[in-house]
Design goal:
36% of the residues lie in helices and 20% in strands. The protein is α+β, with helices and mostly antiparallel strands.
Length: 163
Amino acid sequence: MIIYHGSNLVVESPKLIAQNRYLDFGYGFYTTTNKVQAISFAEKVYKRINEGTKQVSIYEIDEEKLFSECSVLRFESPDEAWLDFVTENRSGNYDGESYDVVYGPVANDDVYTTFTLYQSGALSKEQTLETLKIKKLYDQMVFTSEKALSFLKFIGTIPEEEM
C-alpha cells in the first residue's frame, strides 16, 4: 500500500511529535492513501506555518503485516462509532483504549461545518450521520506508536510540478 503525508517539509523518518491542537484520531503521524488530499494538506500546513515548502512524502507499507502485528482501530465508514471517536478526540476528551494505528474516514474541511453544528447541539447524531453520508470523505491512517512507525518505508516525494 502507498500512503502520503502532506507537510511543509520532507519527512523521511517520521516521528511522534506533540501536537498543539486536537485532531480526528488523536495524537500521531497522519497519512492518507489519497494523493490529492495529501497535496491539499501540504498547502494548508505551508500557509499556516509559513516556513519551508509544500511537500508530500510518500511511504510504502505492508498493510497485511502492519494490521496483523499492530493493534488497529479501523472504521469502514462514517458511522456512529466513528462520529463518537472523532468528536471525543477533537474535544480532547478521548480516554479510551490506545491503538498503534487508527484508520478510517477523515473529517476534511468540507465536513468541519457539520461537526461544528453537531458539537454545538444544532444537529442531532442522526442528522449529522445522514449529512456525512452524502459527503465525499477521504481516508486517513494515523500511526500512534513507534512500533507502528517502524512499518513505514520512505520512498520519495511528489515532484513540485505535480503539486
